[in-house]
Design brief:
Distance between the termini: 77 Å
Structural class: mainly alpha
Number of domains: 1
Strand content: under 5%
Helix content: 55-70%
CATH topology: de novo design (two linked rop proteins)
Order of helices and strands: HHHHHHHHHH
CATH class: Mainly Alpha
Shape: globular
Number of strands: 0
Number of helices: 10
Radius of gyration: 20 Å
């Protein structure tokens, strides 16, 4: 008869849907910190952006702290329809979403174990967030023609959070049987997609505003 500990270690359902092998999983130690710090950074950026939005709404002559010139200009972005896609400032979504991300990281650091449905919900959230962020990037570059620094902080935080949550969920078999081999193989290359994304977005920004940059 198997002991409780041996049954626990050999039960594939436990190892797939739970975090019993968390220490052996890729990024298990760094993911909580990424979620906590990324969530807090995104939360602060979204909160400040909301305060600036309300200040501008109350006083149309107000100049936001992130309005530096004709290109780096939060005021130009805040006044567009894209800044309130659902009828309220997009930053309110950021406050709610990043609060959940930060709380998840804090919970993991405190030793919490989240159920499979929670990770599925988090995956849906970060996937929707990264899709929305990239739509906003396109809108900012090619429709609005201005950059919002606080928005760019949100861009920079959302993509890594999405990427590493996805890797974690793939390893633990949250959506499908686990693909541990692929996740482990990604350990040495996991930064490459993030670096490629940074270079790609930076290149788009530089190309879009090349005339402005070259003027200086």
């Amino acid at each position: 008869m198997l002991s409780t500990s041996s049954a626990h270690s050999t039960d594939p359902a436990v190892s797939v849907t739970g975090d019993t092998a968390g220490d052996a999983a890729p990024f298990a130690r760094s993911l909580p910190w990424l979620l906590l710090l990324g969530g807090l950074i995104g939360l602060v950026a979204a909160f400040v952006l909301t305060v600036e939005k309300f200040a501008l709404a109350a006083d149309t002559t107000y100049i936001p702290s992130c309005s530096l010139n004709t290109v780096v200009n939060c005021g130009s972005v805040m006044g567009t329809a894209q800044a309130s896609v659902f009828g309220f400032p997009n930053s309110l979504l950021g406050i709610a979403g990043f609060a959940v991300v930060a709380a998840t990281g804090a919970g993991l650091l405190a030793g919490a174990r989240f159920a499979r449905w929670y990770w599925l919900g988090l995956q849906v959230g970060v996937t929707a967030a990264v899709a929305f962020v990239h739509w906003l990037i396109v809108q900012s570059l090619y429709e609005i023609g201005a950059l919002c620094p606080y928005c760019m902080v949100v861009w920079a935080v959302t993509t890594p959070v999405f990427w590493y949550v996805t890797l974690r969920n793939l390893h633990h078999g949250v959506f499908t049987p686990p693909v541990a081999e692929a996740a482990v193989a990604a350990r040495g290359n996991h930064l490459l997609p993030i670096l490629a994304w940074i270079l790609g977005v930076s290149g788009l920004v530089a190309h879009r505003f090349w005339a402005y940059w070259s003027f200086f």
